[in-house]
Structure formats: C-alpha cells, structure tokens
Here is the input.
Amino acid sequence: MIILGLNTHHADSSAAIFVDGKLIAATEEERFTRIKHWAGFPKLAIEFCLQEANLSLDDVDFITIGRDAKAKLSKKILFALKDLKTGTSLIKNRIKNRKDISSLGEQFNEAFGCSIEMIDKKLVYVEHHRAHLGSTFFASPFEEAAILSIDGSGDFTTCMFAHGKGNKIEVLGSIDYPVSLGFVYTAFTHYLGFPHYGDEYKVMGLAPYGKPTQVDKVRKLIKFKPDGKWSWDQSYFGEVKVVYKDNCPIVDSFYTEKFVELFGPARKKGDELTQFHKDLAKSVQTVTEEVIFHMAADLQKKTGSKNLCIAGGVAQNSVANGKILANTDFDRLYIPSAGHDAGISMGSALFHLHQNLDKPREEAIVSASTGSKFTNDEIESFLKSKNVSYKKLTDEELYPYLVEKLTEPAVVGWFQGRAEFGPRALGNRSIIADPRNEQAKELLNLKIKRRESFRPFAPSILEDYVEEFFEYTEEVPFMEKVYPIKPEKHKLIPAVTHVDGTGRLQSVKKSTNPRYYKLIDAFREKTGVPILLNTSFNENEPIVNTPAEAYDCFARTKMDVLVMENIVVER
Here is the structure.
C-alpha cells in the first residue's frame, strides 16, 4: 500500500509518502523553491518523495489531499447569507481554491506527463483539521488520547476536538470560522509591527520581556463558554484575507478601529519596541495560554484520557505547550515535528490509511529526519566545482576538532543526515555554538541570522541530562516545548537561557540522531556541559537544503566553520 499525501495550494505546501504504513519521506516545497511558506502545487516535493521511495506515480495507490471543499458546506452557505459582504468574499476565495484542487489531475499531467484519469482515480480528500488530527495521533506513541487541532482556519473550521483509540479518531466537536485563536494571535502580531505570514513566533519571543499588564484588555476580545469552547467579540476583527503573491502567502491586517481605540496606535514595522509593546506581547501570550488550557481541560474531562495530542498552527506555540501538563490533568503530550500546515500532507495520508482503510498503526514517528541527504562525494564534488578549499576528517577526528572550535568560541554551520520535516532544525541543518558564551546570542542575531535581538536560541541537550538542567524531564524530540531552566544553571548556559529563565528544549536521543548526539557528548566531555546552542541553518530564508545553499549561507555571513558530513570548510 503506497500513499502520497499532499498539502497543496495552501501555505507551507508539502508532500509525504508512506509505503505499507511506514513514512519514507516528507518535505516542504519551500526547501526547493527557497520561498518561505511557499503555497501552490508541491511538484518538487512530490518528485523528491517518489525518488526517495524509488517509485513512480503509477505505483501510488492513493493521493491524499488535506483539504475537502465539501466539508461544512451548509455552514458556509449559512454564513454567507448572514454576512453578504464577507460571505461573498469567502465564496469567491473558496471557488478559486476549489478550482485549484479540482484541477489536480491536469497539474499532475503538466508536471509529470501522467494520465489525468489515473490521477483522478487516486485522489482522496481529507478535511483540513482531520488531517491535522491524523498527523499527531496516528504518529504518536499513544494507543488512546484526546486530540486537539488549533489553527487559523481550514475548511471552515478553526479548532477541532477529538478522541483517538487504536486506529480510529472520533470527532467530538469543533469551532467554526471566523472565530479563531490563530487569527487573534495574528491580529496582535500585525498590530505589533510584524506583518509577514508566520511572524507570530516573534510575538512569542518578545513576550518574556514584558509583564501581563494588558491582560484585562485582551480578555475583552474573548468570550469563554462552559463547554470548553469560546467565542470572540467580532467588532474587534475584520475580514481575514489571504492572498498569494508569487506563491507567497500574504495576510492583510484585519484588526478594526475599535481594536485601535482599545490598545492605541499600532506599531509600524521598524519602529522602536517600547515596554508597552513587550507588555502587550506578554498579555496576548498569557490569554492565548488561558484559551488553550480552557479547551484542553474540558477535552480531558470529556475523554477521561491522560494523553493529549495537539496539531495545527497554534501547536507551534512552544511556550504554551510547555505549560499544558502543569495546567491540566493530562500526563503526557505529543506534538509532531510539523504541527503546522505542512504536516497535513503526512496527516491526510495517515488518516486515510487508518481511519478509512482500517489499516493497523505502525510505531510512533520519533524522528523528523525525512528530507534530503548528501554524501561526502557529492559535497566534495560541489566544493571542487567552486574552487573552495576544504579538508575531510574521519568521525574520530571531526568531533574533537569541532569541540576545540566551539570553545574558542566559533560559530559552526552543521549540515548532516536528512533534512528535518517541520520548521525546527534538530541537529541536521543547524547553526551551533557554545551555550556558555554570553556573547553568542548577540553575535548570532546581528551577524549571522540578521534578525531581532530579542529572539531566543534553543538548547539541544543529551536526553540523560534533561533532569539536571530543566524543571521538567519529559522527552522533547522536536523542540516543541519551552520549559524552565533550573535557576542554578542560568549563569552556566546564558546563551540558551531566555530572559525569563526558560529554554526551548530539544532532548537528543542517541538512537534517533547518533552523529549530533556524539558531537554534544564530545562537548560534554570537554566542558562538563551536555548542551549545544542550536538554531536553524538559514539567514532570513527557508532552512538550507543542499550543500550549495549551506555554503552560500556560510559565505555571506560571519560563520566561522562549515561542516557538511565529514567535509570541513573554514573561514
């Protein structure tokens, strides 16, 4: 059984391929097009997945799409009739999207020269949020779990509640468009002067610098309901419009004049970040967490489960994720590496495989290493073509060499293994540095990443040492949770300790990423610290995917050393 899953004609387009229930490859189209959040037909991602599986489209049994235009059709019509202006715009947008999806056979034919009829017979449409549910529960280690999908919007749903048992998911309820926690966070993101699609993480990074002085005002926008659901005051929000320019999603600001009357004039991009802006970011984060806890707590009561699975764009809020277990009666939490919309390629395939075809589940997906990989020979060939000097080291030589460099201190581009699926670099496409270096954060933000100074960096820590450094000991393989770092360790690892004493934890397992584990362990043997600073290998672009992109990023920044597998390039 071969299933090709797609997120197509939607932000973070992607592809994933399963053979007999096992994930062979998954990747985002942006890694190839080099356009962040690329939206459209993921031709290059499809090609990559087929090549990795050594298959052709003829071999594929099903092509699952994480969209279903028929979902909640009656509710869409009713909404349009109640609000003619917004409804008409919504319908026009849906008609365009439906045309894109309904012509997939033609797009496959144009891209791959295959029969339209063959493709049409293989297409299976899975509702957006059910694909999110599938991406987390069916990939989790849990036989049974409560499931929560929280997103901006997809197929007229913004949040979906469910209960998973074995290879089946029962949907218990949902919250419909336009009420959306993702939209609330986006409205404040734009108001705070971060206008680009996906900038919400900047607000999350800014929040620890503030105090929740504006919580009461933010709560005026939210209406809690006793059944775990919630609504909002629509007068603070206008129509949410997403347009695509050169396959890049753009969301116009949609807060209203009433919103501005409540919070004051909006910050423009590039304006100084005042204490008010920091306090507002903290307040928005606080209320967002309250809404998530409210929904999760009620879902726990309804299901009686001690396990929770979360997906959707809001699942990328690692600060909130790190607080869920402490604020609910759940004991365990699983979030996939691609909890955002890229994950619905994987999720739609898993949902069809288990929910529709009744196939048994496989082992949990504990590794995000599903993307591109390059050999030493391929890397050497590229560097020779560019007349770049390099040296080749064995593993036995490489690890001590890098530890010496890191403790100088040097900043290292670390490129090895298969690229990760999702927005986080997890030790395969990473920039790494000494977490003890107080200057590392400023150096990375200003001279390499070229981004806002308040943005934090993550600690990659050997799994056996999590308890020694963090207040919680849960496995966090995908860097999806922020936890408090023990106070006595703050001064030891200042480069990865955020201003509020937390860190976005990534626990590293030897069985999952042996080379990255060995490097951190070599650093531990030298310094006594089982941690490396880890940030994504990029500079205001998608994470690097190839040796050429890695070298280009190295060459135009002030990185000291570039390591690609066993090949070393020095400044």
